[in-house]
Write a structure and sequence with these properties.
Helix content is 17%, strand content 37%. By secondary structure, it is an alpha+beta fold. Strand 7 and strand 8 form a beta hairpin. The longest helix is centred in the N-terminal third of the chain and has 13 residues, at 3-15. The chain starts with a helix and ends in a 5-residue tail after the last strand.
Length: 145
C-alpha cells in the first residue's frame, strides 16, 4: 500500500464527520481512527513468549522468573516512525523526552515519554510504517541507587 494513499485517507478522515476509516488492499488492512492517544499500559512479558524462547513452562524457565514491568508506548497515528538518535535499549529517558517521530501527512509528530525510566525495548525499526496502536517502545522505571 502506498503511503500517499494512507496520507489521503488521514486527510479525508480529518475533513469528515466519521471517526474511523478502514481500507483493505490484498493482505494489508489499514485502520485510521480519530481520537486521543491510547493511555500507556503496563508491559509484561507474556508466559507464551517465555515458553517460546526457552521451550519450557515459565516456572521451569528459571527459579526466579524475571518479568520486566514498565510502560508500553503505542503509536497514536498511522505514519512512518523515525527513531531519535540515542533512544536504544538501555537508554535513560526523562518524562516528556522525545523518543521518536511519526511522520504523517508530511508533518512530524513527536512521541514523548510519559514517564522517566530506561528504554527496555524498541519494537519498530527506523523509517518503518506504523499503524494506530502499534507497539513502539517499552520503558521500565529507573532503579533507585
Amino acid at each position: 500500500m502506498d503511503i500517499t494513499l494512507v496520507e489521503k485517507l488521514v486527510a479525508l478522515l480529518h475533513e469528515s464527520a466519521v471517526s474511523e476509516v478502514q481500507v483493505s488492499a490484498g493482505e494489508l488492512t489499514v485502520r485510521i481512527r480519530r481520537g486521543a492517544l491510547p493511555p500507556p499500559e503496563e508491559y509484561l512479558v507474556e508466559d507464551e513468549q517465555v515458553m517460546a524462547e526457552t521451550g519450557a513452562p515459565p516456572e521451569a524457565a528459571s527459579e526466579e522468573p524475571e518479568k520486566p514491568e514498565g510502560t508500553l508506548i503505542r503509536a497514536g497515528m498511522v505514519g512512518i516512525f523515525h527513531q531519535v538518535d540515542g533512544i536504544l535499549p538501555g537508554a535513560e529517558v526523562r518524562p516528556g523526552q522525545t523518543l521518536g517521530l511519526i511522520q504523517s501527512m508530511k508533518l512530524m509528530n513527536e512521541v514523548k515519554a510519559p514517564s522517566g525510566g530506561v528504554v527496555q525495548e524498541v519494537f519498530v525499526e527506523d523509517s518503518s510504517p506504523v499503524e494506530y496502536g502499534q507497539k513502539l517502545l517499552a520503558i521500565t522505571e529507573a532503579k533507585a541507587e
